[in-house]
């Protein structure tokens, strides 16, 4: 490609097709869109040695990888013992060992992710019968899961790409060899760059739990009481470098072309965190409960219960722990186990988790084959440990930094030494902010349902289900962003860091707060015909909606490809939207039928023509809601704004094409000085699922103990193209904005599979 040598003649805007004339902010000598070879970035040139040359041209795609296969293996061992001491006491024990090696498939040729996971589980049980109405069960156990991850570049000096590029601060550990993460996305389009499938690590981690459970059951008259306790100690370890090879972004701010900025080494933003950290967390969980099943009459049963949970905040074994506390939506002071008023955990304990439950089941007198059921309950959930990991990593990661270049004008961050303006050693540059008053999330669930037996041996199950989630953990990418929105093009505008509300942190501060909530309502209907005369089916339909905000991501855990991040943290009402995982409608139909033909025949006719079975599984599902992205900071806060939305983003079914899946005309870039109006999710709906699978089986029976089953399975029997939702281009600045798979219909995926099984 000519651009590899600095020749950008013919460069156009990816969206409009208008020519782009490169700007030359540092007088590099750009003439007629040609960059002098002497001014090309050495780092960019070395990186491109590992970037494959184009080998095809299909729409906007110019590279196809060679298909590769991977072989995984699994070893599993089980042991169990049971013993009955008397008619009152019995014990049992079980041990399970499992090793699973997952060999990854490379995308670029040398970027596979390989993983060895080991699971060990021990469980024991002692049941003691005090009498015919009083039984106690004690269970104890231990479970441990560990995994070791390596990449294709691990320990391979030929792929020490960041070392060959001469990048500063990068990890020099052989296990962390590999390329940096390069993001090129600007007016000239978005480009896929050679990278690892997982940029963090590689990692070694383990999760371990020791658990003790006691349950006492007591039948007294019409009441069945149950009392119990559940005590567990959890232990989590995690070793990795968060960003050992660094991340570098280029967006065309300086020359008008993101790719030209890359070739010149004009970096828009960069971050690196090469410290190899060791997380070693532990805590105790305590749960106590009581429940009463009261059989009021033969037709009515009531359920009453109460549960109490206490999830102790995690502590770091060696106290290498740090947190930036919060004052509302402003970051405050730095604390550690020696200075925090919450001792070693740094987070306040939440000790008020009382969860009542109530339910009923009623069989009306006018219909003995109908049951009405309903219930309501509270359920508490513990924090995800990822946000707590970050507190341990933040205390140990004292090398590296994150920087953001000038918003306009000339570049001030360069590829050869991007972190020269930052304090990169000894500082807590990666300390995060978890609200010191985080509270455990709780969920209220309620339901009402009807079960009725219909003619034809069909059971109908219909119900309404509702869920309300409160105090959900929400991750805010930068709580130390400037409060005042400005036009970033304003002459003489102070730097982004100079406008941050807490000047003690000259950087963004990733934060978590328990401020999220969600609501779900769903109608669920299922009709099932139990097997009779060789025929059974299950029909299930769900119609639902889930709304949430200000985010669907919490605990610093990735939330998938189709969930937008909040943009304006000071107007959280504007971040409430249809949940990113919402599925409006889902219909599934399964049928299994043993064909009755030739059952009464004998001899060869029966052997060849009887014993046929057909089955189907049909699935129809609405698409997920998705946001439209823009990747432009219109507010001078360092946060990319979403576009403006000026109409319905969805198109009618007959108006959709592979080159225009949604109404691209409904979106435009937000003006400078404010955020965009497009919603966090649900700007439009992604493609759903239409799929039908069909199978035909034939049994050849030789005797009662021996037979052969031949199976013929058709997956996607109608050969309908179901595009991967991730191939829909949602980037307003992209050349294929609104297209599916670059505007080219993909290969349909009907699969026919033959198999045989001999049973003896």
Secondary structure layout plus pairing:
Elements: H1 42-48, E1 73-84, E2 89-102, E3 113-131, E4 134-151, H2 161-165, E5 181-186, E6 189-191, E7 204-220, E8 223-250, H3 258-264, E9 269-297, E10 300-311, E11 315-316, E12 323-327, E13 330-335, E14 353-362, E15 370-381, H4 386-396, E16 401-404, E17 433-434, E18 441-454, E19 458-476, E20 511-532, E21 535-549, E22 577-578, E23 585-594, H5 603-609, E24 612-621, E25 625-626, E26 644-645, E27 667-668, E28 684-685, E29 689-701, E30 707-715, E31 751-759
Parallel strand pairs: 5-8, 17-20
Antiparallel strand pairs: 1-2, 2-3, 3-4, 4-7, 5-6, 7-8, 8-9, 9-10, 9-11, 9-16, 10-14, 12-13, 14-15, 15-18, 18-19, 19-20, 20-21, 21-22, 21-23, 23-24, 24-29, 25-28, 26-27, 29-30, 30-31
């Amino acid at each position: 490609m000519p651009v590899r040598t600095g020749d950008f003649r013919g460069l156009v805007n990816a969206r409009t097709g208008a020519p782009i004339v490169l700007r030359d902010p540092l007088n590099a000598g750009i003439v007629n869109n040609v960059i002098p070879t002497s001014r090309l970035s050495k780092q960019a040139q070395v990186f491109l040695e590992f970037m494959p040359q184009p080998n095809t041209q299909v729409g906007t795609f110019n590279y196809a990888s060679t298909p590769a296969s991977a072989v995984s293996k699994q070893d599993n061992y089980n042991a169990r013992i049971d013993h009955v001491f008397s008619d009152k006491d019995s014990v049992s024990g079980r041990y399970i060992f499992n090793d699973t090696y997952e060999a990854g498939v490379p995308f670029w040729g040398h970027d596979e992710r390989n993983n060895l996971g080991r699971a060990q589980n021990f469980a024991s049980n002692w049941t003691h019968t005090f009498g015919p109405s009083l039984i106690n069960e004690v269970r104890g156990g231990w479970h441990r899961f560990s995994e070791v991850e390596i990449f294709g570049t691990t320990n391979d000096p030929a792929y020490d790409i960041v070392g060959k590029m001469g990048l500063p601060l990068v990890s020099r550990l052989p296990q962390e060899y590999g390329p940096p993460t390069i993001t090129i996305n600007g007016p000239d389009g978005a480009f896929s760059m050679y990278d690892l499938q997982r940029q963090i690590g590689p990692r070694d981690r383990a999760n371990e739990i020791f658990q003790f459970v006691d349950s006492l059951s007591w039948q007294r008259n019409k009441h069945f009481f149950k009392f119990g306790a559940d005590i567990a100690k959890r232990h989590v370890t995690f070793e990795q470098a968060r960003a050992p090879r660094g991340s570098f972004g280029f967006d065309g701010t300086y020359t008008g072309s993101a790719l030209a900025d890359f070739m010149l080494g004009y970096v828009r933003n960069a971050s690196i965190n090469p410290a190899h950290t060791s997380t070693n967390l532990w805590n105790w969980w305590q749960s106590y409960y009581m429940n009463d099943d009261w059989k009021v009459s033969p037709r009515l049963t009531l359920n009453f219960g109460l549960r109490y949970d206490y999830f102790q905040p995690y502590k770091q074994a060696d106290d290498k722990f740090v947190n930036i506390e919060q004052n509302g939506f402003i970051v405050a002071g730095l604390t550690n186990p020696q200075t925090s008023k919450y001792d070693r955990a740094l987070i306040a304990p939440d000790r008020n988790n009382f969860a009542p439950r109530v339910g009923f089941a009623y069989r009306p007198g006018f219909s003995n084959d109908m049951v009405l059921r309903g219930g309501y309950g509270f359920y508490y959930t513990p924090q995800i440990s990822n946000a707590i990991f970050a507190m341990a990593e933040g205390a140990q990661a004292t090398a590296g930094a994150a920087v953001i270049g000038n918003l306009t004008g000339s570049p001030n961050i360069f590829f050869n030494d991007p972190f020269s303006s930052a304090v990169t050693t000894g500082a807590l540059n990666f300390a995060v902010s978890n609200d010191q008053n985080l509270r455990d999330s709780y969920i209220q669930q309620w339901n009402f349902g009807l079960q009725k037996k219909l003619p034809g041996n069909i059971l109908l199950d219909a119900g309404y289900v509702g869920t309300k989630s409160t105090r959900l953990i929400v991750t805010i990418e930068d709580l130390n962003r400037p409060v005042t929105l400005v036009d970033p093009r304003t002459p003489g505008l102070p730097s982004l860091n100079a406008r941050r509300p807490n000047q003690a942190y000259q950087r963004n501060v990733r934060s978590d707060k328990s401020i999220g909530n969600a609501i779900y309502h769903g109608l669920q209907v299922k009709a099932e015909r139990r097997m009779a005369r060789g025929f059974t089916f299950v029909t299930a339909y769900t119609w639902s909606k889930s709304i949430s905000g200000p985010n669907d991501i919490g605990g610093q855990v990735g939330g998938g490809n189709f969930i937008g991040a909040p943009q304006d943290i000071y107007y959280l009402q504007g971040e409430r939207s249809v949940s990113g995982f919402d599925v409006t409608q889902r219909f599934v139909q399964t049928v299994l039928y043993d064909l009755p033909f030739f059952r009464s025949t004998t001899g060869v006719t029966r052997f060849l023509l009887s014993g046929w079975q057909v089955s189907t599984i049909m699935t129809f599902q609405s698409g997920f809601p998705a946001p439209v992205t823009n990747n432009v900071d219109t507010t001078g806060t360092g946060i990319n704004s979403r576009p403006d939305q000026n109409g319905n983003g969805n198109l009618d079914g007959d108006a959709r094409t592979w080159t225009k899946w949604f109404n691209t005309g409904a979106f435009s870039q937000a003006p400078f000085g404010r955020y965009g109006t497009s919603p966090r999710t649900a700007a439009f709906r992604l493609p759903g699922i239409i799929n039908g699978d069909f199978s035909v089986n034939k049994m050849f029976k030789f005797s009662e103990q021996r037979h052969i089953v031949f199976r013929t399975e058709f997956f996607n029997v109608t050969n309908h193209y179901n595009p991967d939702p991730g191939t829909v281009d949602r980037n307003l600045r992209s050349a294929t904005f609104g297209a599916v798979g670059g505007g080219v219909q993909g290969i349909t995926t009907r699969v026919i599979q033959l198999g045989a099984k001999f049973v003896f």
